[in-house]
Amino acid sequence: MLAGLDEIAGTGRDAQRGGYSRHVWQAADLELRAWFIERAERIGLAVETDRNGNIWAWWGEPGPDAVVTGSHLDSVPGGGAFDGPLGVVSSLDAIARLQASGFVPSRACAILVFAEEEGSRFGIACLGSRLMTGALHADRARALVDPDGITLADAAARAGLDPARLGTDRESLERIGLFVELHVEQGRGLIDLGGPVAVASSILAHGRWRLTVTGQGNHAGATLMADRRDPMVAAARAVLAVQDTAAARPGTRATVGRMNIVPGGTNVIPSSVQAWLDARAETDEETRALLGEITAAVEAVVAENGCSVSVVEESWADAVHFDPELRDRFSAVLGDVPALATGAGHDSGVLTASVPSAMLFVRNPTGISHSPEEFASADDCVAGVEALEKLLRTLL
Ligand code: GLV
Ligand code: MN
Ligand code: MN
């Protein structure tokens, strides 16, 4: 393991779920942020936090036209050790190696650590980059609420930010000449290609929707089976409808990974159930079509159970095609490494709408991610750092 990953291996471990739960501005995330700042300052970088809680560490004078690299430190609930931190740690290591070799950059350079990439606390993924680019309006962000009822505005204030200043940050954005995110691969792509490193070609279109199934709360013992309008049963059938609909459309993906049963008592027929749908496909149109079909199927099964359902979009991300010229240039610098498509969302994808950006993937021999089984070998992590160092050397 890279030394940096070792240093943070004890932070944010989740004893119940396994793996890590590092959610924005909560204790583990704050600890990781402090660790990053200390680590960056130790190699002489000048650290600042922007108006949206993204951390910048500058090697030399800040932009314009800077080469910026980085990723995120937050995780999904019960996530792996590599998704996010690998890119942050590799950025620190690549710059330290350049420094040690006596390399003097002729262009500004920074590491950027994005806030709330996973959307695990406030529900919207890539929050830091969406706020910076204006893809998410500050008013909407401020009003987001975490599972404990704390608004994003309050959480940001408690973390030392000014909630009134959240939002589009042209000044920061305009300093980025080019962004590169190194990331652990999240599928089997590199296992099958037999190499340690790839460049990214595209990201699936994806979105999140909140389904609220409403029935009649009642007594588990006093209510005959025939008299029930049970939203849990309706929601269970809705999940099967989600699965069947996506399975029938090749290449599409749909997941229900989170549910909230209200009120949630063993001897209580629930009154409502919230379920969150994550749906993805190659194009925006295909994803919208998938959602339309899922919605129709869910409405039908829910009605059969005497319940009703509302479907509310919480976030949306267009399909991303990384600039092919930049991708091919990077691939050539690295010795013709392959280009891989991914089904996972990234801040680098959000940035493509505003600045040239690219990604490097490091092989994950388990092919598993968003789980404690996510992995990258020490040798492959080093290959990733070497690739990033090589790219920075060419770009700087
Ligand atoms: C982020 O990892 C996502 O793809 O949801
Ligand atoms: Mn992730
Ligand atoms: Mn990630």
Description:
The chain is an alpha/beta fold. It contains 13 helices and 15 strands. Strands 1, 2, 3, 4, 5, 6, 13, 14 and 15 form a 9-stranded mixed β-sheet that branches. A hairpin with a 5-residue loop joins β1 (46-49) and β2. α3 (85-100) crosses α13 and α9 (231-247) runs antiparallel to α10. The longest helix is centred in the C-terminal third of the chain and has 21 residues, at 284-304. The radius of gyration is 22 Å and the shape is globular. The two termini are 27 Å apart. The model has no long low-confidence stretch (mean pLDDT 97). One manganese (II) ion binds next to loops. Glyoxylic acid is lined by residues 118, 125, 344-345.
Q: Could you provide a short overview of the structure?
A:
The chain is of the alpha/beta class and 396 residues long. The protein has helices spanning 3-7, 27-42, 85-100, 127-133, 138-143, 152-158, 170-173, 189-193, 231-247, 284-304, 324-333, 347-351, 378-395; strands spanning 46-49, 55-59, 66-72, 109-114, 176-184, 197-203, 205-214, 218-219, 253-262, 268-269, 272-281, 308-317, 320-321, 339-342, 357-362. The mean pLDDT is 97.
